[in-house]
Amino acid sequence: MTGLPADYRAFHQLYRAAYVHWAELYLGNRHDAEEAVDQAFEDLYFTWSEVLRTENPNAYAWAVVRHRTIDCARARGRRPTVIDTAAFETTALRHAVDPIGELEQSLSVYKAICALPARQHDVIVLHYCLGYSVRETADIMGITEGGVRSTARHARHRLHDALGLEREEEHR
User: What is the pTM of this model?
Assistant: First the structure.
């Protein structure tokens, strides 16, 4: 990365791992995730001066990464794999009294997550599935921490409705 602008190198170093982490969950394998994210960073590099002039470079970069990841999935004839991988990687399945019931429940939850609008989906996946803090999720997506909390609250309401669950009082 020698010869690249210092701010671009810093941005790459700060966000590549999180972007690959998200893309890997979406695409189902590390190689494709790295390829999609590297293509996104290449796009960002060629327009870097314009990216920096945008109101929110992080949000712009997140959109580029998201679109490149979706394009990669389409090019390979795949659908998102959040449903497939997350359900089988659930720790609860390994210790469940009723693994089949637990699997059915996990599949329902992940199908409901996949049906969320894009921003709600991304907040839920980054924050709850991948374990990023509210601050980290906000930084990765280029939105405010309040935006993450609000989006997560609306997403949880949609998920409760989609799964036929009663909404609990929100204390967050």
Answer: 0.80
Query: If pLDDT is split at 50, 70 and 90, which confidence band does 165 have?
Result: confident
C-beta pairs of 142-149 under 8 Å, 24+ apart in sequence? 142/56, 142/57, 142/58, 142/59, 142/60, 142/61, 142/62, 143/59, 143/119, 148/123
CA dist 26 and 69 (Å) reads 8
Do 159 and 116 touch, CB atoms closer than 8 A? yes
Q: How far apart (Å, rounded) are the C-alpha atoms in residues 73 and 57? A: 24
Which residue reads 């870097």 in tokens?
48
CA distance 58 to 52: 9
Average pLDDT, the chain: 85
